[in-house]
């Protein structure tokens, strides 16, 4: 049986910007509760959570890590997440598995980019939130100012639940037993602010409070949970994870005040697809049907596929038969594990609120819902909004013959990482991720874990070609080699189509001048040109080809002859129809600090771009929208980073195609000529 009932469970994710001290804090929590004998360190590569060899190399987290420990009469499942924006995929995943997001803020750095994002994403997911100000022992920290800036960025519902004392050597409780003095503000004032914030969610309690001037902590429990659920209260705690200051107090807050799985906002599941999907709410009852969500996949070279999931309803046992999404064939759980970083510990059963894992079930994918009811349609969780991967690299194998393995390895990497995209563009394999660091990690992993060597280069720009006028084309293909000859003649007409219309092939041949059986051959010849146009060798689009006349020969006409005649007639027409090269224009959405908007706007216009507007977004940040040719955005990530001191980010999507300027066309055409001459 599960060792703890649902009400005794707590689920928290440590989120926030890189180097805030999340992994160190997780280590301190594990140590304090006796789950490990001594705390390890990120620098020495000895922590439970940063167990991956690359994490030890880089000295920071790259993937989420799952641990659990007991405190008082509760059992806590905790997910440590990576904090650098490049690894957001793994942090956002983790939000789907917990009731509480603990946003860790580095006392030295204050509010950082990921802090801001996480406060917002956690709120949008309906999670209870709590802020931990860590590194209160460090030099040059100004905690009163930091608390004020937290309140101005995220609202006055952010209230200290304890306060540093003795110059940051310990913390004093402001909620249960508010007594003593703190380094700043006052314990009594902090207590009063908390109680007043909590009673606001309950009118009766509010009246009672106004009459009596005090409410017992017991009476405050239920409204406290509601205030957390409603986002009406975000408690702030103080810690120094490395020395352990504030860690016992943080554990008490987890045990006594953070919601158990029956007290949080239940996640929204959907049953069925598209407009027919109906919402269902999971009920954290161990007796009901199973509903569990897979939030993390690890592909281990030795263990195989590991799927970590959070149980939201029902009980998962070793002998459970579970369905995956709308899959018709159930799998048997077999071995059920809880995770302690890299270690797997077998367990018998998991109830709502538990986080566990199964291994070796290849059909399970990230975001899958596991359930045990035969009649269910596809059940899925409200999808997570991930940042769009736009940092693209084209891969080139260093060794021939590795093609099949490369594709297998990329498939595995993408299975683990929701922000890694793999595409085949023409004959290029292109991988896209969230930034430099992300890509470097993926390439390192390919080399060190899978021993596959690749070189990289910027992906080619997907240019296109089209025509701008009507024209006639003609070709007579005639060859006489020895006995049998080849003969075919084609007359055609071409017309430009509206942008984005694609390609049309029209047969207007009268009187069988080209016999019906040869028309597919003509079309094949035309389509050969479509794949690589005559100006720059790019695919052609937005053109109509009308074949209207020709000639054949009863003996010498062959398919090859009409393929060739079709191809050459089309080329003939294109060159008379003022052909041009088109380039992709993308919509760009840039997030950046207000102060750098001027620089960014200047930069975008120097890149032939146009801005369509700016909007204030979260505290001090602006969002800037516009359109830019994709070819101008090579290395834009590093450029934006330098203009915004690392604070900027952007996303792009295809808007439309436009003719390239004349000089660019000339350049592309001459490059194509060189290639043709060399070939
Ligand atoms: N002074 C001080 N340094 C800390 C504290 N917690 C973590 N660090 C250091 O800050 C760096 C980043 O810590 P880490 O736990 O990897 O942060 P994460 O990226 O949020 O997981 C490491 O060098 C830690 O030793 C703390 O409470 N005080
Ligand atoms: Mg970490």
Care to describe what's here?
By secondary structure, this protein is of the alpha+beta class. It has five domains: 6-192 and 234-257, 3-Layer(aba) Sandwich (Rossmann fold); 268-381, Translation factors (Elongation Factor Tu (Ef-tu), domain 3, Beta Barrel), CATH 2.40.30.10; 391-457, 2-Layer Sandwich (Alpha-Beta Plaits); 465-577, 2-Layer Sandwich (Ribosomal Protein S5, domain 2); 581-663, 2-Layer Sandwich (Alpha-Beta Plaits). The chain contains 16 helices and 35 strands. A seven-stranded mixed sheet has the order 2-3-1-4-5-9-6, sandwiched between helices. It has a six-stranded antiparallel sheet with strand order 16-15-21-12-13-20. Helix 6 (187-199) crosses helix 8 and helix 12 (519-531) packs across helix 13 (559-576). The relative contact order is 0.09. The model has no long low-confidence stretch (mean pLDDT 92). The chain binds guanosine-5'-diphosphate and magnesium ion.
CATH topology of the largest domain: Rossmann fold
Q: How big a fraction of the residues is strand?
A: 25-35%
What is the tally of beta strands?
A: 35
How much helical structure, as a percent, in the residues? 25-40%
Poorly predicted ranges: none
Largest sheet: 7 strands, mixed
Task: Please tell me how large the radius of gyration is.
Answer: 31 Å
What is the 3D form? elongated
So, CATH architecture of the largest domain? 3-Layer(aba) Sandwich
Mean pLDDT across every amino acid position: 92
Structural class by sheet pairing and helices: alpha+beta
Total domain modules = 5
Strand ordering within the main sheet: 2-3-1-4-5-9-6
**End-to-end CA span:** 71 Å
Count of discrete alpha- or pi-helical segments spanning 4 or more residues: 16
What small-molecule ligands were found? guanosine-5'-diphosphate, magnesium ion
Give the class-level CATH name of the largest domain.
Answer: Alpha Beta
